Amino acid sequence: MRFPFFDAPLREPSQFVGFAGNRIDRQSERRPDDCVIRALTAQTARIMLIGKGRILLKPDGEGFDPWFTVTECSQLGFDPAASILLGVAAHGPALALYAKLEPEQPFDGLEMLEHRTVYVQGLIREETLGAMAQASSLLTWNHTHAFCGRCGQKTEMRAGGYRRHCPACGTDHFPRTDPVAIMLTVTPEKCLMGRGRHFAPGMYSSLAGFIEPGETIEEAVRRETFEEAGIRLGRVVYHASQPWPFPYSLMIGCYGEPLNEDIRADMDELEDCRWFSRDEVLAMLHRTHPQQLVVPPSGAIAHHLIRAWAEQP
After folding, report:
1. What percent helix, strand, coil does the chain show, rounded to 5?
2. I want to staple 51 with a disulfide (CB 3.0 to 4.6 A). Which of 18, 46, 99, 204 is the partner?
3. By C-alpha distance, which of 64, 55, 112, 56 is closest to 245?
4. How much is the average pLDDT of 53-82?
């Protein structure tokens, strides 16, 4: 008997976006305070070195390897004991360390690259890119929450980096994830896209904004679309999500049904906002648009929202 509640593809759309290939067993119920020390005793333990939006990589054939042994980590001048535990990967314990990676700091035979470069150019494997997103978000949170938000005293890392404890007032702090609504307003014939002032030349994308406290996803989609474009939405449907380690966000992708078509764009937020026909969007996807207009790269959830609408029958 067919059960329409799960009438969806076996591989949901979220599995095709960038940073979504993480295969690490996070061991979320098995993180004692000494889990990092235990993990480092394993011969198969490997560590990612990440800091200031950069990652250290070893050339590996045609690509790069971001995993260092405990010995290699020490030889580079970093303290493995300061690592956080990501979990257990195929090779064994997977850890990450916040390293002071400065552009002027050379590492012979190694590459120090920004996360966005690694992501856009696909320099490491899909599952490793997901592990990098996990590591970057968790390390950034630990680095920026070294002091208690309640009493201001220095906190201590616990549970392998998934909790920070304040010994002064006893407060426990846990990693945060900032939810962001990213939405494409569509009709059968056209979709709404905007252009931010920081975008690459010719790029248009779906609108987006942070979900505020006490707000549902659907309410945020409607509010942001109206605030940025003056378009009121009726029905809102979820499509896919994407972890976004800049610094620790979750992109929640949706489609919105417009109730009006007259755009009143917020030009403090956007450089331009307009409707695009399906043929025009297909040309942007194929990079054949006569005005050289394009959409975001294929790893971005905005790309998948746009493509899924443009290529539907």
Report:
1. 25, 30, 45
2. 99
3. 55
4. 93
Note the pTM of the prediction, 2 decimals. 0.91
Q: CA–CA separation, 46 vs 26, rounded Å?
A: 15
Name 154's bridge partners: 147
Phi and psi, residue 276, nearest 5°: -125, 135
Nearest alpha carbon to residue 305 among 206, 193, 204: 206
Q: Exposure of 226 by Cβ count < 10 A (0-12 exposed, 13-18 middle, 19+ buried)?
A: middle
CB distance 301 to 312 below 8 Å:
no
pLDDT at position 127 is 87
| Confidence at residue 276, expressed as pLDDT on a 0 to 100 scale | 98
Percent of the chain exceeding pLDDT 70 equals 97
Task: Answer whether residue 232 shows pLDDT above 80.
Answer: yes
Please give the Cα distance from 302 to 194 (Å, whole number): 11
Strands 54-60 and 63-65: antiparallel
